[in-house]
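Possible regression after last week's pipeline update?

I re-ran a chain I had predicted before the update to compare outputs. Posting the input and the new output here so someone can diff against the archived version. Not blocking, just want to make sure nothing changed silently.
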Amino acid sequence: MKPVLLNNREQNICTPIKTQEVVLKYIKNYLDHRGSFSARILARHKEFWQDPDCENVRNTVMNIDDPIEKWKNAKNWQRKLSNKYNSRKFAEKHNCRVAQLYWQGSDVDEINFDLLPENYVIRPTIGHSAKSVFLMKNHYNLFDKKTYSSDDIKRVLKQAIDANSNLEFLIEEFVKSENGEYEIPKDYKIFCFNGEVGCIVVANRISPQKGTCTFYTENWEQLKALNKIFPEGEYERPPLCLNEMLTQAKILSKAYEIFIRIDFYATDKGAVFGEFTPTPGLGCRFTKSGQKLLLSYWDKYCFGKI
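New output (post-update):
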């Protein structure tokens, strides 16, 4: 088939439309990221990930027995904890509960699915927004509502690894909810500032990109929406393991030293560590009240820190 060429009249019509789309995208990006808290998050993202050595730092494999001096032997060493394998080890080092690890690596042909339980989770060691995550319940992925064979999963994982040679995958325990069910777990996202809790965001997902959020203080008093990434949900009771979750978050936050969002799950075994998120949402769509609250904690407990 020959390529379709636009005549001059058609080009003159299309060019303003394309220009308008670019302008609207620019305006949306500006509106999503305006505010001082958003500016700090974007500045941190730039310093963390535009450094030519960033991937070497992030993908330095750490072990639970490594002395803390080895963990902190690089500039912006916290980047090591954006690798989810390292973050597991760091949490374990600080006596926090993590999901059981069944397999870890990049050679997906080595995965013996016959040895895995019926329900398990697959997630990449690097990445965000639940990309390439499988919540497998008897061959069914709760996230994208599709059924996968073992070969289907291997094919998807190989494509991701081909696109990023630094990538590995973790196959972990699918933790049950507090009432003992296998379901998409609630994310308890705790915004922490050098050992202090600024707020708790509870995300109820129905897929990686859809769900609702509610917002609470450390004492579980409901707050107005702090960001608009997901629609605001209804008030819900605190998890049974809230005190354990907060204790672990404060310990990890103090060790992390700077602002960090720490994600947990409330399970039938208690609080389970999820991951560290140093640049949540790239600072996108935080409300005025959210910006004000988070900046007040940052300036009080992490003053002058990235």
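Follow-up from reviewer: compared with the archived run. Residues 1-6, 22-32 have pLDDT under 50 and may be disordered. Marking as no regression found.
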